[in-house]
Amino acid sequence: MSMQTIPIRFVLSVALFSTASAGIAQDVRSGTTIDLSAHGSLSSSEIDFPSIVDPERDNRTVPLKVHVPYGPGPFPVVIVSHGAGGNRDANFAQARHLATHGYIVVCIEHVGSNTKQALAGGLRIGKTIAAMTRDSDEVLNRPKDVSFAIDQVMRWNGEHTQLHNHFDLKRIGAMGHSFGAFTTLVVCGARPALDWMRPRIVNGRGLGPDLHDKRIRCGVALSPQGPGDPFFLKESYASICVPLLGISGSKDKQQNFQPEHRKVGFQWWPDGPHHLLWINNANHLSFSDSTGSKSRRSNRLSEALASRREDVQRISRAATLLFLDQHLKQQPSVSLSESSLRKYERGIADKIQLLKK
């Protein structure tokens, strides 16, 4: 993995986010009353690195946006991977939420499967996105983008003027939605299937290479895939080696499969501290939220989905925070359970189920 980076140019977002008006509900955690789905006590800002390249992969560009909390660091780190056709603002609201709770969040843009590439297909956007998930180059480069982002974190922690000593390098997690969930599972130990990749690579059937990153302590997979075209085989999951939280729901269809197929994938996860949170009426687009970003395209999508998404996002934010607090911050009094999430059930997301391994 390359430790060389060249982020000379960056754009600093000067807009600070105040959390003073965040709503508070009854939720007992560590003796305090707090709404885990609301923003935390810290303000945050963003630093954008649009032009970072990896010299070890033919100067592949890996744009990164860092959500930085204000407060005494170092902070645990979460690396975020967007879905096919997304960008580094696709999970902006979720990243900001975590930053206000004391996480430094690094959002990746995967240039071979981003918004620009999706729109290049014109009216065939659905077919374009489906092709991205089978593109052997992009499928195998995405996990490497995550490892490259961690390399940048290590470099910034040592020498970047604004980010020096901000990162807790022993507490790094991964998170992603859809194609980003695939990416998260792979960097947490799952092996990708070669069977559906195009063009085929050498020995192009069975399990792909081991691309997990030993620096990652846990992962959150939003819309994790079950076995089958195009991502995984049943055998793919056996090598998962860190705690994982999957989040999906009753309307979250997978390519070629109905929502319940995501539960089939979870059944093949190995024994360990793994969970699958199932949210009634959650659909595939419920799990990304670009609200608050300056990306016009992302915000248009957020506005269109907002009325159907917030009930799901409320539960997802609370569950993600509980899981990360337990496994990255290692808070002994924190535990993810159905009872800890019931209070967030309302609106269309009126029922949850938490499966455990």
UniProtKB/TrEMBL annotation:
Organism ancestry: Bacteria, Pseudomonadati, Planctomycetota, Planctomycetia, Pirellulales
Transmembrane portions of the chain: none
Keyword check for Zinc: no
Signal sequence residues: 1-22
Record keyword Lipid metabolism present: yes
Annotated GO MF terms: 1-alkyl-2-acetylglycerophosphocholine esterase activity
PANTHER family: PLATELET-ACTIVATING FACTOR ACETYLHYDROLASE (PTHR10272:SF0)
Pfam families named among the record's database cross-references: PAF-AH_p_II
Superkingdom to which the source organism belongs: Bacteria
UniProt GO BP: lipid catabolic process
Cross-referenced Gene3D superfamilies: alpha/beta hydrolase
SUPFAM superfamilies xrefs: alpha/beta-Hydrolases (SSF53474)
InterPro entries: AB_hydrolase_fold
Protein name per UniProt: Alpha/beta hydrolase family protein
Alphabetized UniProt keyword annotations: Hydrolase, Lipid degradation, Lipid metabolism, Signal
